[in-house]
Sequence to fold (381 residues):
Amino acid sequence: MLHREAGGAPRRFDEYYRCYPIAMLPGPEREDVNHGGKVMMPPSALDKLTRLHITYPMMFELVNGAAEKITHAGVLEFIAEEGKIYLPYWMMQTLSLEPGDLLQILSTDLPSGSFIKLQAQSTDFLDISDPKAVLENAFRNFSCLTKGDVFTFAYNDQTFEMAVLETKPGTAKNGAVSVLETDLEVDFAPPVGYEEPKKVSGTSTPASGKGKLPSGGIMHNSGSMAQAINYASIAPQSNTAAIGAKAVSSNFLQGGHKLKGSKVPSPKASTPVAGASTNPLQPAAPRPRTNGPQPLRLPPGKLFFGYEIKPVKKKTEEKKADEDTKPHFQGQGQTLRGGTKRKGADGDGETKDKGNGKEGVNKPAGQRLEGGRTLRDTPKQ
Fold:
């Protein structure tokens, strides 16, 4: 921001420096500064800016009077040697400067930008998957942009050049705008060298002459692709391959021959017979295989997108199905009450008192010993 004296014009920072590219700055290489929009100035410039009460953000107008070219830049650090200023290489190209040329530096104020239109200088920019994110990261090294600048940024070990075609608002000199702390809308023009792809008509035009197919290929009037290629007849079921493999591995594919009573065929005479052909019989043509997966033969211009899908049963489902098919409780039950009847006992194992005609107390039949006694009647010793 410029400081205005009482009753006078605003005081501006106005100095001349010898300009050099960032690559010639003493110290480690700083590639991010070379692809930015900020310069390196000497410490004496900071003292003068402080006395002029020029506050952050400090922006400068760079003028090459010999070539009558102007651009704008911010300042990154005040570490340059006295009398020197270090610029990004793309900025020196924009101003048509050579190392050691005199450059005028003027402090200035710029409005916040709301819109810029950019144009990539190579079609390689189209290979970037997310150009918005890449440019947002690149603009962190910029304080301002000027209409007509061709700045550079690095991405994926490659350097891209971008031209500024338009800026809004265009109130400042040469259409310069600030890109700090602002919502900036970005539009892209087609890259240099880019050609629009030729549009191909979707309908096929019949070629001249008879007996020729249309240039667009085979046309189907109606029906889906499955109907056109007769999918139901060429797509085998999921168990077709298993059935075919089982048939191939079987050892009993042909008819059997009885060993008992079979007659041994008599050998044919090797002497040629008159009127008979001496050429051996030609073997029968092999029959096409009907088991296993069949070869997929499609007519020209047709596509096939896969076989029928059947989900595979899980082990738990197979185990549960096997348990459901097994019969339960196959054995014959036996009870203790339904035992065989002993001899000498009544039909129901009970005795009755015939003297009074009443049903007596149930007494189990005792086992007899010698002498006609029972176990119950045996006196205690």
Summary: Confidence is low (pLDDT under 50) at residues 206-211, 344-361, 365-369.
